Amino acid sequence: MPGNKLAARAVTVSIETLFYLIAIAVSLLAGALVMAAAGVSPWEAYQLIWKGAAGSSGALKETLVKATPLLFAGLSYTFAYRCGLFNIGAEGQIYIGALMGTMSALLLPSMPIYIHLPLALFCGLLGGALWGGIAGALKVGRGASEIINTIMLNYVAIFLISYMVTGPMKEAGGSLPQSASLPDSAVLPQLLGSRLHYGFFLAILTAIIIYWVLERTTWGYQIRSAGYNKRAAEVMGMPVKRNMLLVMMVSGSLAGLGGYVEIAGVQHRLMQNFSPGFGYDGIAVALLGNTHPIGNVLSALLFGGMRSGANAMQRVTGASTSLVYVIQAIMIIVMVCNRYWLGGTKKRLREWLIRKLDKTTGTIEAGAAGSLEI
Amino acid sequence: METRNLVKRFGSFVANDRLNLQIGKGEIHAILGENGAGKSTLMNMLSGLLTPDEGEIIYKGRPVRFGSPREAMESGIGMVHQHFMLIPALTVAENVILGMKQGSGPWYRHTKACEDIKRISHSFGLDVDPEKRVSELSVGQQQRVEIVKTLYRGAEFIIMDEPTAVLTPPEVEDLFRVLRSLKAQGKTIVFISHKLKEVEAICDRVTVLRAGQLAASSAMTDSNAAELARVMVGRDIAPPAARPPLEGRAELLSVSGLSCRLSGVQVLQDLSLDLREGEILGIAGVDGNGQRELCEALMGLSAGQVSGSIRVRGEPVAKPHPRAMTEAGVGYIPEDRHREGLMLPMSIGENLIAKEYRKPTFSRWFTLSRKRIRQAAKAAVEDYRIKTPSIDHAVSKLSGGNQQKVILARELMLRPKVLLAMQPTRGMDVGAADDVHQRLLAERKDGCGILLVSTELEEVFALADRIAVMYKGRIVHTVDRAEADMELIGLRMAGL
Amino acid sequence: MEAEMWVSYAAAAIRLSVPLMIAGLAILFMSRSGILNIGMEGMMLIGSLSGVLGAYYTGNVWGGVLTAMAVCGVVGLMFGFLVITTGADQVIIGTAMNLLGLGLTTVFGRSLLGMGTEAVQVDSIPVIRIPLLADIPWIGPALFEQNTLTYMALLLVPAVSLLLYRTQWGLQVRAVGENPLATDTLGVKVHRIRYMCCIIGGMLAGVAGSALSLGILNQFTENMVAGRGFIALSAVIFGRWTPTGTMMASLLFGGADALQLRFQNIAIPYQFMLMFPYVLTMAALAWFSGKAKQPAATGLSYKSAADRHA
């Protein structure tokens, strides 16, 4: 009876949602404890964060600006993760993307924005693909761990950018370690009278495209298959190794694109340490978003909001914005516990609920409870 | 050692049913039985890995109950597993000492360990170098390390699970020499095997298990191999259904001179076979005699070096690859459905299309058609009577039999000309297994050639037109079903 | 003049390699039992801050080191719980650990110690000049006029070697990292061994962090570990998962760090010197392939046979 299955499904969904909300609440509570310990009133701090994140249209726009690089980084992690690969290197890919994009913005002869901007964005994308591709090629060709290599590449990229902006790309006559500012033709336009730039919409569009590629295309199907069971995908005749390389490149290119978007939308010039760890935050975004592209959008907005809110909080209370890191870390840990550890609890709760419902309505069949036959 | 009315159940399945056996001190006692006869369960209970549900184990005149392998070990019962429990990166000495108290103090005394090991190995004629890393040793040497490990722990009673399965003939001879020397020094050995010749050569007493029950137990001198084979198989096979003759049918699959070396071991040796339209060729044989490697070599999945020629419908296949074989019309039901056959977290539909997702039926312009995938899933669920809460459920939620039906549905959806079916009904209940059998017979009727690999003789006899027996990477016997003699096949499977 | 410069360079190289060495040994312990810890960065930060706090409140620099050990031991225990008991992915937990370390230390560093010029300064770990040995020309001043922690770190390397290769417990650790199942069948408690390694790793991370804050800078600054946690990981990989190899790699990487600090005007831009450990590690990883020395069970969670049947 479909109605019963629907009820059983509703139970599952509501339990999952409940645990999700509990996870977020526990994280915020833990954050509050840290604030209290650091001598900040949590109630006041959260109020300030909320105001700074969503209190006004300006605050909301700032949230969207902050969410943009996080979303790109989250998508980058998500895409690799769905193929069973760990790309911890979004940070480095962001930097290389920013570098390549900036170089094409500064070095190419002047041209109209509708050619120059896409070209620069594409170069950013290419830079990320290159950086991700190195780790991918080493994985496929030499069996070297992509986890370690992407971490190593992060630092190589950061130092490379540091060299570039203090050396060859340093602004002529300037004293700060930064490049010259981008020409207008390579800058992402902003919405009138705000810092919100079109990069945000590009990020949303990218999320939708990634969703489409993963869930609807044959290639995405291959990727997911290999992610779930690499050996089975090989037995089915799918080109698993080639896909691993391609996935690392695409994953890198998403971060790289995000890197140039941040430059072209916010900074307008390449500088040292422009990313306060977007790449690592992306991992938190992806995990909270259940490594689903659309889930990533929601969690990027949440973290973006926390970031812009934390800025407001810092201005008033003096407590560091780094509180956001703490909340993010706790969120990852709580989500992981939720996924790996509370499975049994959830199952029992679900069975208990179904039994309860069964008594009251007498319609839900036991089979629909999805009991596992071993 | 004695067991009294030993019972072990797994769910509703009775693996060991009231077993009574006596093993005398200082004898080499063989436990014979087909796959699934309950040998492993029995041994796991004796060595403390499992605890019996009923009955008792009496060791040295006292009833014992082991909570863990360590407790069994402390009483002097050691086990040499079929798959060695060794750590390749460590030295022999380290592997032997691991987990043991070595005198007082926290130190690991390498020199002392080496001396002890040398002493033990000399007294039993086991030649091992304690300084070497296990990864540098041959399989035969690794087995010796396992034996030394049990002896170092003071084992008086050693259980060996299929010890010859992985050895070459000279290594087997060597093992026998060691076993005799162990026996001479008063150790008791339980030797699990299905190779009759070896049992005959080395054992004093033999116990035959069949379907979890004790079928026979006698001194080796009172029985002969042929009799044992009959007791082991222990049933009459239904006469074959009348089959149309196969003369003049087209050849679908032809393999000649197929050899394969996998990490230094010759797993397939100059193997040839052919399969005609509308024929089921049953490959009988005990597990681990190259059946898996044969299928993997045919599908291009082998990790070893393969040589030989493969022709599908007359066309030579230069370099087999799973995709190329699929396109040539070869379907494949792998042995391990969880590891190789299914993407467990995916839905039935997504598993069904795993080989055909690129065809216009399921995708256009690289885009999957969800509607058609669901339609296919729905059709398969109805057609194959797959029991599932809904067609969108992950296949991990299905029972083993229903998972196998998903694989079968996927392969038959390809309309294959040739089907490689490995253990297609392993672990399935009678009803579901019968469903699978009917499907295979229907395909045969439609002209599909099926290579059926099964370790269950009954299944081979029920389905096959011809039967080939595999032993140590070769086909040692081929016979038409009509003329097949169960006893002879049993003997061939045991390498006689 | 020339000689003096080299001696002071060698002394600096050794000083800078000490945190790497200790952190490397921490990672080595966990790695040998099959646990990949990419969260060393965060753990070291927590160690740096708690070291300074401990030294500030107890008024004794060794009180600081002990505080750091205790705090990071608890952090290691928590890490262990997450990756061993819940079986969560080690990469993810490591990342969370880094974020947690950065966030907590920044927040508490500011609220408890102040920042900028007002930041709390503490005593540093005393430098001990070893008589006679320090008089050896060249080597003496480089090697034997170091702070106490440096000597301890250099002694720790043979100690860890001894522990891992010459004790029964060390044998069990190595076996657990290679093949937990086989080790389990021999009656070794896999989870207990892994927990112990996590706690030891945590405590050493605390020492490593305080070696940075108490041994080199005398204060805590935000994100002061600055990638050294990952360099320590590189040192373990480059040192092929052995204590001596880790020490040699740490000295090499410490030497590169000292080189870029001392000779900013040499031909190679300093950023390339900073890249050196990472590039070398990648090259080493690619080179090792096929004959990798990494413990075989690294990164895999293990459920004991009894748990699995339940």
Automatic annotation (TrEMBL), chain A:
It is found in: Cell membrane. Its main location: membrane. It is a multi-pass membrane protein. Pfam families: BPD_transp_2 (PF02653). It comes from the Bacteria. Keywords: Cell membrane, Membrane, Sugar transport, Transmembrane, Transmembrane helix, Transport. One of its GO terms (molecular function) is transmembrane transporter activity. GO terms for cellular component: plasma membrane. InterPro entries: ABC_transp_permease (IPR001851). The chain crosses the membrane at residues 18-43, 119-140, 147-165, 196-214, 244-263, 283-303, 323-342. This is Simple sugar transport system permease protein. It comes from Paenibacillus phyllosphaerae.
TrEMBL record, chain C:
InterPro entries: ABC_transp_permease. It is a multi-pass membrane protein. Its main location: membrane. One of its GO terms (cellular component) is plasma membrane. Pfam families: BPD_transp_2. It comes from the Bacteria. The chain crosses the membrane at residues 6-30, 42-59, 65-84, 91-113, 148-165, 195-217, 229-254, 266-288. It is found in: Cell membrane. PANTHER family: ABC TRANSPORTER PERMEASE PROTEIN, SUGAR ABC TRANSPORTER INTEGRAL MEMBRANE PROTEIN-RELATED. This is Simple sugar transport system ATP-binding protein/simple sugar transport system permease protein. It comes from Paenibacillus phyllosphaerae.
